[in-house]
Design brief:
The chain is an all-alpha fold. The protein has helices at residues 9-31, 38-45, 49-55, 59-75, 82-91, 99-115, 117-132, 134-161, 171-188, 195-209. Helices cover 75% and strands 0% of the residues.
Amino acid sequence: MAPTKAPDSSRRSDRSRRAIHDAALALVAEVGYPRTTIEGIAARAGVGKQTIYRWWPSKAAVLMDAFLDLAGRVAEGAGSGEEAQSGEAAQGIPDTGDLVADLKLVLRATVDELNDPALEAPIRALTAEGIVDAKLGAEFVHKLLDPQLALYVTRLRAAQEAGDVRADIDPRTALELLIGPLMHRWLLRTLPLTHAYADEIVDYAVGGLAPRP
């Protein structure tokens, strides 16, 4: 009789984690963050509540890990068409020598991500929870926002070296001219978030950053 192979516990853990991630993201999108519970995530994922608490201290921590995993998959450009373009832009801002075109490309990709229902719900939940939970907010900034903002800094510094923007600007402050208006409109839902608005932001911001005669 052939020996029985022992179950692969690491593979089982990976499957459970992915199921929990998917359940957390689905519930937040369907019922909102306040009504999402550890019990609901466990039931949706088909695991025991104690399994979740063994790996995460709270539903916010579950959602953080789930969203980081999702963002990583989006950045890999696993799909095709718009999804692949969005993933490509998330990996780095291109440097074609045309700063305006490069920034419009990445801001349009950001608009698409913020308007994507699968991404919008967890981003809103983590943004709101991060305001009242300083530790979660710091983790959200460190793990997700800072790496993305660093891409803008790199591209703006290259533009400085090429003479496309003023040498005296602070790239970290300058990038907020691009990201700030986009996030303000998205958070408050004042007006639709569109590609045309993203293009307008770039035109206004770069006009103010450009060298003066």
